[in-house]
Amino acid sequence: MFGFGTPELIIIAAIVMLVFGVGKLPQIGTSFGKAISNFRKAADGKDTVELPPQKES
């Protein structure tokens, strides 16, 4: 996962808790989860138009 190990993730989580505080973490997690969900839905959407098969003559 991007070259991050367990110690790096723990340090990042501690910094996030210091910056945002423990009270706002659930709100941040919820909004982050919704953003990732919306991104995945948009990425799975079809970008091409399906054409009906052509008749052979």
From TrEMBL:
InterPro entries: TatA/B/E, TatA/E. The chain crosses the membrane at residues 6-25. It holds the Pfam family TatA_B_E. GO terms for biological process: protein transport by the Tat complex. One of its GO terms (cellular component) is TAT protein transport complex. GO terms for molecular function: protein transmembrane transporter activity. Keywords: Cell membrane, Membrane, Protein transport, Translocation, Transmembrane, Transmembrane helix, Transport. The keyword Cell membrane applies. Its main location: membrane. The keyword Transmembrane helix applies. It is found in: Cell membrane. It is a single-pass membrane protein. PANTHER family: SEC-INDEPENDENT PROTEIN TRANSLOCASE PROTEIN TATA (PTHR42982:SF1). Belongs to the TatA/E family. Part of the twin-arginine translocation (Tat) system that transports large folded proteins containing a characteristic twin-arginine motif in their signal peptide across membranes. TatA could form the protein-conducting channel of the Tat system. Forms a complex with TatC. This is Sec-independent protein translocase protein TatA. The gene is tatA.
